[in-house]
């Protein structure tokens, strides 16, 4: 896998040089090296983490009555994708997004969690895109093997990102738009584009480096959950930012 990733990375660098994109390549690689893993959640889950409850995978949370089952077609599809992408250990995987600047995917929840690198670096892998898109790209419903070189360990995320994203850039790509190539949060989940991080195991509040409220909360119970989480985590030294009511 490492050799295949290296081949894709080297090809992307050669392509960037051929097309005169060296400056954009340097910016992209620097941003990717400093990128963080983020997960977006609802206020109820923040309350649970602040109260000492671990954040668990979809399957574990469902079995523990911590979350409802997804719509039937999505539940079945998720099971198919995880069985192909994470054979034998899919139920242990948490899905996160690689963020260039701390922004999250707010279609998945109004609160963005920033994960401490030291808490995930030895149990996280990175995939070029959302696992559902990866499943379709490689036709894993029929094929046993995927195209090699499109996953990486955490410390090689910059190589994966360069290999994946350089082909999407042109001379017209503005430097300030490069972060949006890494993570784009659209009007709906189907519009989101991002590099996915897969984390093995559970997360506690101690794994958090920051928490950001990125979208307004209209329900009183959600506001209460947010306030409880904000106070508890701030007291414990976690950076908490309210971008709605700064």
Descriptive account of the structure:
It is globular and about 55 Å long. The mean pLDDT is 93. Strands 5-4-8-2-1-3-9-10 form an 8-stranded mixed β-sheet. Helix 10 (220-235) links the parallel strand 9 and strand 10. The protein is of the alpha+beta class and 246 residues long. Helix 2 packs antiparallel against helix 8. The chain has one domain. The protein has 10 helices and 10 strands.
Q: Would you spell out the secondary-structure blueprint of this structure?
A:
Layout: H1 2-18, H2 22-33, E1 36-41, H3 43-50, H4 58-63, H5 72-85, E2 93-99, E3 111-115, H6 117-120, E4 124-127, H7 131-137, E5 151-153, H8 157-165, H9 178-182, E6 183-184, E7 193-194, E8 196-200, E9 208-213, H10 220-235, E10 239-242
Element order: H for helix, E for strand: HHEHHHEEHEHEHHEEEEHE
Strand content: 15-25%
Main beta sheet strand tally, sense and closure? 8 strands, mixed
- Gyration radius over CA: 18 Å
Biggest sheet, spatial arrangement of strands: 5-4-8-2-1-3-9-10
Low-confidence stretches are: none
Supply the number of structural domains. 1
Helix content: 25-40%
Residue-averaged pLDDT? 93
Structural class by SSE content: alpha+beta
What's the shape?
A: globular
The DSSP helix count reads 10
């Amino acid at each position: 896998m490492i050799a295949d990733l290296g081949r894709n990375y080297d090809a992307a660098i050669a392509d960037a040089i051929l097309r005169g994109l060296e400056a954009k390549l340097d910016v992209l690689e620097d941003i990717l090296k400093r990128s963080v893993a983020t997960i977006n959640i609802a206020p109820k889950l923040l309350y649970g983490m602040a109260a000492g409850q671990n954040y668990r995978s979809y399957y574990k949370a469902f079995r523990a009555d911590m979350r409802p089952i997804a719509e039937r077609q999505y539940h079945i599809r998720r099971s198919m994708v995880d069985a192909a992408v994470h054979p034998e250990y899919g139920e242990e995987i948490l899905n996160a997004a690689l963020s260039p600047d701390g922004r999250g995917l707010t279609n998945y929840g109004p609160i963005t969690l920033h994960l401490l690198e030291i808490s995930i670096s030895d149990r996280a892998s990175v995939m070029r895109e959302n696992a559902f898109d990866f499943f379709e790209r490689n036709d894993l419903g029929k094929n046993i093997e995927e195209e090699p070189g499109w996953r990486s360990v955490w410390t090689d995320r910059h190589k994966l990102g360069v290999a994946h994203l350089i082909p999407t850039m042109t001379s017209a790509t503005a430097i300030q738009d490069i972060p949006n190539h890494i993570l784009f949060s659209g009007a709906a989940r189907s519009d989101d584009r991002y590099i996915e991080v897969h984390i093995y195991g559970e997360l506690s509040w101690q794994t958090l480096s920051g928490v950001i409220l990125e979208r307004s909360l209209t329900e009183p119970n959600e506001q209460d959950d947010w306030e409880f989480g904000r106070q508890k985590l701030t007291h414990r030294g976690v950076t908490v930012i309210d971008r709605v009511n700064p």
